Amino acid sequence: AATVTAAAASGGAPHLLLICFPGQGHVNPMLRLAKRIAAKGLVVTFSSTSAIGAKLVESSGVSVGGDGVPLGGGRIRFEFLEDGFDGSDLDELMRHLGTAGPAAFAELLARQEAAGRPVACVVGNPFIPWAVDVAAAAGIPSAVLWVQSCAVFSLYYHRVHGLVEFPPEDDLDARLTLPGLPAMSVTDVPSFLLPSNPYMSLTEAIQQQIRTIDKATWVFVNSFTELERGVVDALRGVATPPPPPLIPVGPLIELEGDAAVRGDMIRAASDCVGWLDEHPPRSVVYASLGSVVVLSAGEVAEMAHGLASTGRPFLWVVRPDSRALLPEGFLDAVAGRGMVVPWSPQEQVLVHPAVACFLTHCGWNSTLETVAAGVPVVAFPQWGDQCTDAMFLVDELGMGVRLRAPLRRGAVRDAVDAAVAGPDAGAMRSSAAAWSAAARAAVAAGGSSDRHVEAFVEEVKTRAA
Ligand code: UDX
C-alpha cells in the first residue's frame, strides 16, 4: 500500500530516495545514477550527510527541497540528513554514521511521507550498511550501488566469506587466483583487506555490507558488462554462499544534458577548458589524484619537478589542503606551461582533444572516466581499490604504464614519456579508443547498462502502480 501512495503522491512518478556515503568518490557515481534514473521518468531525491549538503550547495549551487530540477522525463531533487556532524576524521565519521545515521535516515524517510512524497525505493551504497535495514523496517525495498569494480567486489566477497586465502603481505612473489581474474600479487588486491590497513572502521563497514548485501533487491555496480564479463560470470558460479547477481549500470559518466546538476564539493576552476583550447591535440598531461589521496611535502615536490621536467604543458589538480606544499617559486617558474587548479571539471578535461595522458591515482571513478574518454594513463595508485584498478588499466586493458612509489621526479618524466611517446604509446591509444567506444555504447540508448537501468525503472513503476 505504501508504494501505491508513492506513485500517486508524486503525480504518477514513483519517488526514489538515494542515500550516499559522504565522499566525492561516492557522490559522483550515486548522483550520476540518480540522473540516469530520473531521465527515465522517476522522481529521485539525492541525500547524504548535512555536511555534504552544505558543500554541494556552496560549490555546485544545488538547491535543497522543493520540486528539484527536471531531467528527461523525471526530476532530481536534494534533501539531506539532519545529523549535525562536520568533523573530518574518518574513524569519527564512521562511528557517527553508525550511531546517528539510522535514526537520521528514518527521519528523512518520514519527512518524505509527511510532505506527500512517500518513497517507493531506497538506493543506498555499500559504505552505509544500515540503509537497507531502515528501508526494510519502513516496508520499502532497496537497491544498492557498489561504487567500485566487479573485480574488487569479487575480492571482498571471497575474503569476507573465507573463500580464499590471501598470500602473506611480505610475499611479493606469491600469486592469488580467483575465477575470472588474472593472477594477482598482494600489491594488486585492495589494501583495505591487508593486515597493514590503517582504516579498519571503513573496512568493517564494507565487510558488513558484503555480508548483508543480499538484503537489497537490486545490486547495481558502476561497471559495464563488456568490461568485466569474466568476473561477473565467474561470480555466478560461486555456490556457497551465492552472491547476488551484479547489475552493471555504468560507466556512470556525465552524459549530454547532465551538466546542469553537478556534485562537486570543491568549486571547479572555470578556466581549465579555455586553457586546454589553446593547446594542440594530445599535448597536455592532466594530473589529479582524486578527492582523498594526500601526498607528503616531499612527494608534492617530486611530482612538481617531474611534471615540469616532461617539457610538456600540464594541468595539475592540487587541492586547497595541499596547495601550501608546492615548492617555493614553482608556480612562477612554470607559468604559461603549467596550470595548477584546486579542482577541475575532470570529465570535460578528459574528453578534451588537447589531453595526451592522465596521471591518476586510479580511483574507480577516474578509471572509468579515462576509459570512457579513451585517454591513456600513468597509474599511480595509493591504497584501497586503487591498487586493483591500476593493475586493471595497465595489465588488463593495456591503457598505460605504472608509476611506482617512492615517487621520484625522473620516474614521473619517464612514465609520462612512455605513455605519450614511447614505443607502446600507439598501442595504448588504440586500446583506449576501443574501450572508449565500448563504454559509450554501454550507456547509450539501448546499450547493456542503459537496458539495466530501464528494466529497474520499469520494475519500480510496476510495483508502484
Ligand atoms: C574514493 C577512493 O579513493 C577510490 O579509490 C574509490 O574507488 C572511490 O572513492 P577518490 O579518491 O576521490 O574516490 O577517486 P575517484 O574514484 O577517482 O573519484 C574522484 C571523482 O572526483 C571523479 O569522479 C573525478 O571526475 C572527480 N574529480 C576529481 C573532479 O571532478 N575534479 C578534480 O579535480 C578531481
Overall spatial form: globular
- Bound small molecules, which ones? uridine-5'-diphosphate-xylopyranose
How would you name the oligomeric state of the polypeptide chains in this document?
single chain
Global mean pLDDT = 93
* Largest sheet, strands/sense/barrel: 8 strands, mixed
What's the total count of β strands? Answer: 14
Low-confidence stretches: 1-6
Could you give the order of strands across the largest sheet?
3-4-2-1-5-6-7-8
CA distance, first residue to last residue: 10 Å
Q: SS-based structural class?
A: alpha/beta
Strand content: 5-15%
Give the proportion of residues in helices.
40-55%
What gyration radius follows from the Cα positions, in whole Å?
Answer: 22 Å
Question: Helix tally?
Answer: 17
Describe the structure concisely.
This protein is of the alpha/beta class and 465 residues long. It is 43% helix and 13% strand.
Task: Give the tags.
single chain; 465 residues; 14 strands; binds uridine-5'-diphosphate-xylopyranose; 6-stranded parallel beta sheet; 13% strand; disordered N terminus; 8-stranded mixed beta sheet
